[in-house]
Design brief:
Blueprint: E1 23-26, E2 30-33, E3 40-44, H1 48-60, E4 64-68, H2 71-80, E5 85-89, H3 97-106, E6 111-115, E7 128-131, H4 136-149, E8 156-158
Parallel strand pairs: 3-4, 3-5, 5-6, 6-7, 7-8
Antiparallel strand pairs: 1-2
Length: about 160
């Protein structure tokens, strides 16, 4: 796992672990407890086979998953439903993963951005970057880290 972090931010090895009752505020979903066994995830992926596989694996791990392939639909869903995490592809047929990430960050949600493309030098709207291709183990580890162990706005690159 390659780690990148902004100056002044904690690295993954230096992240303070929160207690099970530590909370994070979100205007979209109210107060959510961190450290829970599962969470509600918005998965935005336009590649059908990858979306189906990731969705199935997340659900098997006990996460509630809402799946869409459309960036504009994802932004609408963020306005209507409470989520604990957003996982979005960078390039989508309608809207973009960057738009989804910005909408999620406005709601103080952690964001994992997945991409097979080179990234710009400044990444402000995503907490984590997962390169494609990546293993399911890498994906699940990053999801768990984003939901349970990390502080928001900690860029972490895996892949």
């Amino acid at each position: 796992m390659n780690r990148r972090h902004k100056p002044g931010k904690r690295s993954a090895n230096n992240t303070r672990k929160g207690s099970a009752n530590q909370t994070r505020k979100s205007s979209a979903n109210g107060t959510r407890k961190r450290g829970a066994a599962a969470g509600r995830i918005l998965l935005v992926e336009d590649h059908e086979s990858l979306a189906a596989m990731r969705c199935a694996v997340l659900r098997k791990q006990g996460y509630a998953v809402v799946l869409t392939a459309d960036g504009l639909e994802a932004c609408r869903l963020l306005e209507l439903a409470g989520f604990d995490l957003v996982v979005t592809d960078a390039r989508l047929p309608s809207g973009s993963g960057w738009d989804v990430a910005r909408a999620a960050k406005q709601r103080r949600l952690p964001v994992i951005l997945t991409t097979g493309w080179p990234l710009p030098p400044r990444i402000e709207d995503a907490d984590y970057i997962l390169g494609k291709p990546s293993s399911l183990a890498q994906f699940l580890s990053l999801v768990h880290h984003a939901l349970h162990d990390a502080e928001p706005n900690l860029p972490l690159q895996a892949g």
